[in-house]
Amino acid sequence: MSPLEQQDLEPPVGTARNGLRLLFGRDLAYVALWATPLGFATLLTPIITRLLGPSGYGLAAVSVAIMQLLVAVAGSGLNVAIQRTYAGAGDRAARKLITVSLVIAALAFLVLTISGPLWAGSLRLGPYRGAVAYAVAWAMLSAVSQTVLALLRSRDRLDQFALVTLLQTSLAEALSLGLVLFVRRTADEYILGELIGQAATLVVALALARPEPLRRVDHHLMRVTLGFALPLIPVTIANFIMSTSSRLVLNADSGRVAAARFTVASNVGSIASLLVYALFEAWMPRVFALTDEAAVPRVLAHSRDALYALLIPTTIGLSATSPLLLRLWAPGSFRPDTLQLDVVIFIVATFPYAGATTSSRGLIRDGRTGAIARIALCAAGFNLLLSLLLVPELGLFGAALATLAALTFVYVMTDRLSQGLHPAPAPPRSLSRAIAVTTMVCLATVLIPTNLPFLLLRGLLGVLCAAAVAFGLRWLRANPDLDRLPLTPRRPRPRGLKG
């Protein structure tokens, strides 16, 4: 019997201790790989912003935003559903979802291409060609690749996962830079390079995944899977709206240059949030694989508190070094020195985002995707309303505040719902106080001057914070047991009581 056939008969199982050990051990390698696009973007963005200029980079940013939205639609939540299916039904059933992903992406591409002139014109994107058209095709290929990566993650094939991830980052970014440098310095060439790189990556990814053909007897699998996955589409769309509605409001109110400056600020300020999302993706297979129901709230609470503790030095370090990152990220035409407060607000928003992802892990495991969708849609509407109210008056600062408020809303609502299903210990009071102090310290970094001596001081503080994060990760890998945490959790809040 092959290993894959054996996996069909013996879905992975997990205990609390094994789950915690792997969360802060081998799984961090997947987090590092999921973060590689961030690393390549960090290296490439300073070059692209200077080659394209504010207007060209603004069009590229809008095209990327379109791509992200369409990935949410074409992906249909299958990247999460395939991990759930793998844990419950095995590899062969999961491979059938790759075929479903291919069919959905092909149909979506056909519809979007036919209707492209209509929706592109209504969004004031100009003719449906160039960067916008390339972004649509890029999105369809990326949607399938995400599903394949989720399967490789569930298989725990780190080597194959690394190959696909590095191809779709290093190859695509190299092609984009090459086209911009040697063909034309426009957003069209930048997005075209991403498209070509993603197409080549998908060929390799499908060879590794080996999609399984669908049969008539698979209708039950399809019904259960789509019932779980489809509510995740509005979740992803709502998350997209929360991350881009302010950008679109700024674009309509102040033009592409303002949208480009917002993109720079949110990219720098969201570094920690992207790492939290990478943890969410890497940890979901472990949560699905837990067979001890009593262990679920313990694992969620432990991972949440450990993540909060790691975010304390991370957010302080990012806030302190934000002027350096901004100057590296964008040229003087973007006025990066005026974006520091906006960046810090995005950084502080990492804490409610981390809490929301923890609660969402438990809810997704229980199949409560519909409830998550309702919360996300309400938060998206709340964020859009705040953007419309605050952006005309406060500009980029209002956009950052709207994002912080929306993420806090998501955290409060998902935490309440999660406590009703899996009552878990609240964070220790000492940890909650530390987060409050950290927030004030992050805001206070705005007051530190940005001349050369203080820039060196900021850099030193960033190095110290990075060392603290590395020490914390090392400690967590060596101490996976709940009873060895240097924290004293509070008792779970009784149901029906506030606070």
Supply the key terms.
2 domains; 81% helix; 20 helices; globular; 0% strand; disordered C terminus; disordered N terminus; 499 residues; mainly alpha
Strand element count: 0
> In this structure, how is the largest beta sheet organized?
none
Average residue pLDDT = 79
Instruction: Identify low-pLDDT runs.
Output: 1-17, 482-499
Shape: globular
Radius of gyration, Cα only, in angstroms?
22 Å
> Number of DSSP helices?
20
Helical/strand content category: mainly alpha
Can you tell me the number of structural domains? 2
- First and last CA, distance: 54 Å
SSE order in H/E notation? Answer: HHHHHHHHHHHHHHHHHHHH
Helix percent band = over 70%
Beta-strand percent range? under 5%
Report on the architecture of this protein.
By secondary structure, this protein is mainly alpha-helical. It folds into 2 domains: 1-34 and 255-499, no CATH class; 48-230, no CATH class. It is 81% helix and 0% strand. The chain has 20 helices and no strands. The chain has helices at residues 3-9, 16-23, 27-34, 36-75, 78-89, 91-122, 130-155, 158-182, 187-209, 219-229, 232-254, 256-269, 271-289, 295-329, 340-348, 350-365, 369-394, 396-421, 429-444, 452-478. Helix 17 (369-394) runs antiparallel to helix 18. The chain starts with a helix and ends in a 21-residue tail after the last helix. Mean pLDDT is 79; it is low at 1-17 and 482-499.
SSE blueprint:
Elements: H1 3-9, H2 16-23, H3 27-34, H4 36-75, H5 78-89, H6 91-122, H7 130-155, H8 158-182, H9 187-209, H10 219-229, H11 232-254, H12 256-269, H13 271-289, H14 295-329, H15 340-348, H16 350-365, H17 369-394, H18 396-421, H19 429-444, H20 452-478
